[in-house]
Amino acid sequence: MADRILEKKKWTRKKIITIAGIVAIVALVGFSYYFTSGKSRLNVDLERITVSEVKSGPFKEFIPVNGTVLPLTTIYLDALEGGRVEEKFVEDGAVMKKGQPILRLSNTDLELSLVNQETSVYNLLTQMNISQNAARQNTITKLNQMTDAENQLKEAERLYTLNKKLYGQKVIGAQEFKQSENDYNYKKQKTALSAEILKQDTIAVRTELEQQRASYNRTQNALQLMRKKVGDLIVRAPIDGQLTSLDAEIGQSKNKSDRLGQLDVLSGFKVRADIDEHYLSRIYTGLKGDFTFAGKKYNLVIKKVYSQITGGRFQVDLEFEGEVPKGIRRGQTLQIGLALSEEKQAILIPKGGFYQQTGGNWIFKVSENGKIAYKTDIQLGLQSPDYYEVLSGLKPGDKVITSSYENYGTMQELVLKPE
Fold first, then answer.
1. The CATH number fitting domain 80-105+233-262, selected from 3.40.50.150, 3.20.20.60, 3.30.70.100, 2.40.50.100
2. Lowest mean pLDDT segment, chosen from 14-28, 47-61, 264-278
3. pTM here?
4. Which residue of 116, 321, 362, 400 could cross-link 299, Cys pair, CB 3.0 to 4.6 Å?
């Protein structure tokens, strides 16, 4: 009986085990390479992140600012003169009329100075009267002397004329004629001298009178100024308005220029807002903003920019454009959206915590199958309270993770898993 040839088995147990081991090693190497030599990955629960869709839509950059309602005009009340508060005529919150007294101060030094100034004016006026009376008497005396001189000159001229005629007729001698001629010339010179003395006296009296009047006017002006300073001890309302922030109590001492309170003009309101100094170069008069009050939107426009920076912020004054909300009150806080650009079409992504870690330079973009999110470089432009403008790196329809990246470290990819 011939021997039967047995067929050798192709897949032995040993061979299968060997092949399985090789496959396992290759798989292990592959997985090891995938997770160690490739991009760093992190498993993330979908329920713990926010995935947002990139979209195209109208965009206008504006920033949220807090504004405080203030009167359109505020006049500050400062003490024009220092003193002690003696009397208060009204209380804080009173509605005032222009010129109405608010409070009265006392200042003994000022009041004593006023008395001394009034005495000086009285003494000066008395001295002026005495001087004018003396000058008047002196002038009268010189006028009498002038009259006498003129009268004596006329008599001397008459006698000279008569003797000249008689001398020509040989009725009188040369001695008598010469005497009358000398007397006439003497009276003539005396009259001219009296006239010059009277003229100079008149000029001197006029000059002295003008000097006295100038001195009196200066003293009177000083007196009026002193009276005004004493009058300023009664603090009055400079305009119509509501008295607020009154800081004065009976018996309290106030120095010159101390703030006593303020008057708010009741003709309208404005809004003063604080803005981060980062935006200083982009804020100017004419920029517009809006806010919602009692379910209705109202418009504002910047009228004044205060460039002084305090605590990293600066201030602007906004006035209402169009209708002013009814029921709005001084001191009320408003949430204002201040527009920094005109409306335009743009690619947008919602704001989120990712910006704090990335600075807007990159973002985790979700793959089309939704299983992986990978790091993608982007460039952002302007912003609004709700959106960032995308300049490059994303297109409408893309999905991105906009929640915080605080726990992702240097991961390049996120594996998205349902919780």
1. 2.40.50.100
2. 14-28
3. 0.51
4. 321
